[in-house]
Amino acid sequence: MGFLVPLFLSVGSLITGAVSLLGGSTILAGLARFGLGLAAKYALGALLAPKQQAQASQLDTTYGEDLARTVALGMVGTAGQLIYRNAYSSGNRRVQDVRILSHFRITGITRVRVEGEWKTLGGAENPDLGFRVQGIDAEIWVKLYTGRLDQVADPNLIEESNPPGRWTSAHRGAGIAYAIVTSILDREHLTQPWDAFFEIEGAPLYDWRLDDTAGGDGNHRWNDQDTWEFSENPMLMAYALERGIFNGTEMMVGKGANASRLPLANWSQAANICDELVGTGARYSAAIIAAAGSGITHDQNLQPLLEASASSWVEDAGGEYPIAGAAQSIVLTFTDDDIMVDEAFRYSTKRTKSELINTLAGTYLEPDNFYEQTPLAVRIDDLALSVDGERLAVSVPYSAVNRSEVADRLADIAFKASRYQGNAEITIHPKFLADANAGRWIEWDSAEYGTVTFQILEKRLGPLGEKGARNITLTLQEVSDGIFDPTAYETAPPDAVVPGAGDYQSELINFQVNGIVSTASTGSKRAGIRASWNAIEDVTIAFVDIEYGPIAATGNVPTETAHSSALAIETVQDMWEGIMSSSLWAVRYKLRSSPPRTFFQSDWFEVDTLEARLGDDDVYLPGMVDQINQATADQLAPLNVNIRDVIEDARRVAREASNQDAGQFLDRVSSLTQVKSVYGQITADYQLLVTAATGPGSALVQRLETLEVALPGLASVSALNSIGLVATDVDGHITGVGTSVSGLQATVANFSASSLFRTAVVATEAGALSTVGISVAATAGGATSQAALLLSALAGGDSMLGLVASKVYITDGANSENPFVFSGGVARLNVANIGTVTAGILQSTDGKVVFNLANKTLIFSE
């Protein structure tokens, strides 16, 4: 089994052991790996290049479907896997996210991270949304499905799926633990869906020590997961991974070993050592998010658990089991006389320099630091540093440890074990066969070298001797009870107390409003309001929202909002939109910050606007230039536009009317009909959007019908029919506007053709305007030819008809002429049959023949 390639305490042992295992002539009787050699292993990290191991956190959200399966064990932090997002309710303000937390059942969610702090779930349970996040202004709900095989699909996800059918009764998530997060968006407290992060109690675990059918005492049963309980014991996690964690008959993660290969007596001893109370908690505890998928080995899940308990891993004829890190009793003592002198003998009292360590750093995953890698106190052996003559440092990442006291204990063990340097390969008498097992401690009572305690790293049996006995070859590493003595090194976990609130600005200083007037080049005047304030010193203030409206409407929502940046140099905001002259208005403001915090509206500030009378140019073509890409003259209707731009502009108007912040419309109703076909990236789409909105002195209705087909990168065709009507009565000033647009557009490569028919009517207290425009255009490589017919009538003014064309032709159906030609910026009469001409001067194109009818002269010149 590839994942059990042994790792020993030295480079020499590793290479020798590997050769012996793969190609030697001896019989492998047992081996132990990791254990007390962890620090040396990481000292050789560049040589060994270990793969990424499972750890106790997943800091970033994962997306997609073809991902590794994960099972949470112990207390872990995770952002989960986002598999579904749905928005519904008015303005799609409620956003549902479904996040997989584990592909096996979990025990529960303990905390969630919001706004940089741990928060709890609580309050009254909402049957649809679950429990609300406590202690925040935003409204965030979390509903948990723990991953039972018999769990049903969530009714609220089915009911609110938009469009219907995205979540059905078939979406049960059987055996999958997932959370439904509902974020209720608003401008003040939650402007986008919560970026979720959870602390969860992982899977319940089987404990054979609580199974009275397996020699324990209790009701646990391997075949009944409902009897299992949550635990942070790394040996229970390792046992579960060895046997495999199953949803029904499907193994989600693990090895799938037979129970007979896992001797419970050895496993119980290791589990009991982990549970021993040391200080304020268990000797060893762990947490990992175990994974299964392409390129992920069982060893990557198991190894962090062994490291989290300073365990040696043993494989021998009796099975596979861990030996947890603790002082052991001596199982046998041999002397020099028990060494087989005819066999190879190697004993060294020193490690190689590449294995020596006199400085050790490390990291663990701190819950109060949101399961980020957190450094341990650095350990330095000054005496060893002096002996070694140079700093020999190593950093050990405890990726499955989330308690600083456990990480400190493990770092002490690894650090001190590295300074016990004795190592040997010795062949001893066959009489020790029964007791000399891998992982166990033995003692050598030597007349030459004194008494030395070893741990057996590898046990090999030699060939049969003359009497049918096999000599025992042992690979040994020096150990001692002193490895497990506590030291003065102690890691201080991060301070979980969040700093108190700062002294932030909550209002503008010296806020004032005054009436102003702007005069255009035409002489037309426009009334406005200027708001001013002292420079803002609070760098967290991002914007100032200023609301204003006529004094009669201040009890309702103001008609307009100005949005000003909060830079220190920005201390003035001028407002013009919708303001009437010679009237009483009110202004108030509200601050916006980043990160967001709560602000309240200021009081109303009253201001009298100045007198400013409008000219005819203020009535003619009001606002129509917003949709023009290229104007041929000030009086041309906006015909030279892209159909797609017209569609998006109409949809924007509909969205603004439906938006919760469109204050002039307090009642809004909309209807959307859509038929859409998609094949790959090829689309055909029909939409009919009807919007009606009313409010104090305001009424709007719009009908937008669009048809679009597209072959991406090849061709697109769009059609539009849009009608919009708006009527307003603001403080007795009445306005009516109606617009109807119908158009077609087709594009292939660099060629496009479009046609547009537009009619608009505007009536105000100052006058009325009616326009009709018909336009056709064709474009090739950026050059456009266009023909248009323009009609306009202004109340009390001129009525006009305009032509835009390079040629004008007249036909009776059979014959045609081009009497007018526009070329080079000059209009020409190309052909004419005139009965009577009344004129002043007739002149040739070169000016050499001039017939002055008024003066009765005819001049010819060279």
Can you describe this structure?
The protein has 862 residues and is mainly beta. It has ten helices and 55 strands. The strands form 13 sheets. Strands 1, 22, 23, 24, 25, 30, 31, 32 and 33 form a nine-stranded mixed sheet that branches. Mean pLDDT is 81; it is low at 1-29, 44-49 and 616-637.
Keywords:
862 residues; mainly beta; single chain; 10 helices; nine-stranded antiparallel sheet
| Oligomer class | single chain
- Rg on CA atoms, Å: 42 Å
Global outline: elongated
Strand content: 35-45%
Q: List unreliable stretches of 5+ residues.
A: 1-29, 44-49, 616-637
Overall SS class: mainly beta
Helix content: 10-25%
- Beta-strand segment tally: 55
- So how many helices? 10
Task: Give the N-terminus to C-terminus distance in angstroms.
Answer: 110 Å
Instruction: Compute the average pLDDT.
Output: 81
Sheet having the most strands: 9 strands, mixed
Q: In short, what is this structure?
A:
The protein has 862 residues and is mainly beta. The chain has 10 helices and 55 strands. The protein is elongated and about 150 Å long.
Write the layout of secondary structure elements.
Layout: H1 11-23, E1 27-34, H2 38-43, H3 45-48, E2 57-58, E3 62-63, E4 69-73, E5 75-78, E6 81-88, E7 94-102, E8 108-114, E9 117-119, E10 121-126, E11 130-133, E12 139-145, H4 155-160, E13 177-184, E14 198-201, E15 204-205, E16 229-230, H5 234-243, E17 245-247, E18 250-253, H6 264-275, E19 277-278, E20 281-282, E21 288-292, H7 298-307, E22 312-316, E23 319-323, E24 330-335, E25 346-348, E26 359-366, E27 372-375, E28 379-380, H8 382-388, E29 393-397, H9 404-417, E30 423-428, E31 441-446, E32 450-464, E33 470-478, E34 512-519, E35 525-532, E36 541-550, E37 560-565, E38 572-575, E39 584-593, E40 605-608, H10 643-658, E41 667-679, E42 682-695, E43 698-711, E44 715-730, E45 733-748, E46 751-764, E47 767-780, E48 783-794, E49 799-804, E50 807-811, E51 816-823, E52 826-829, E53 841-843, E54 849-852, E55 857-860
Parallel strand pairs: 2-5, 3-6, 24-31, 26-29
Antiparallel strand pairs: 1-22, 1-32, 4-21, 5-14, 6-7, 7-13, 8-9, 8-14, 10-11, 11-12, 12-13, 15-16, 17-18, 19-20, 22-23, 25-30, 26-27, 26-28, 30-33, 31-32, 32-33, 34-35, 35-38, 36-37, 36-39, 39-40, 41-42, 42-43, 43-44, 44-45, 45-46, 46-47, 47-48, 48-49, 50-51, 51-52, 53-54, 54-55
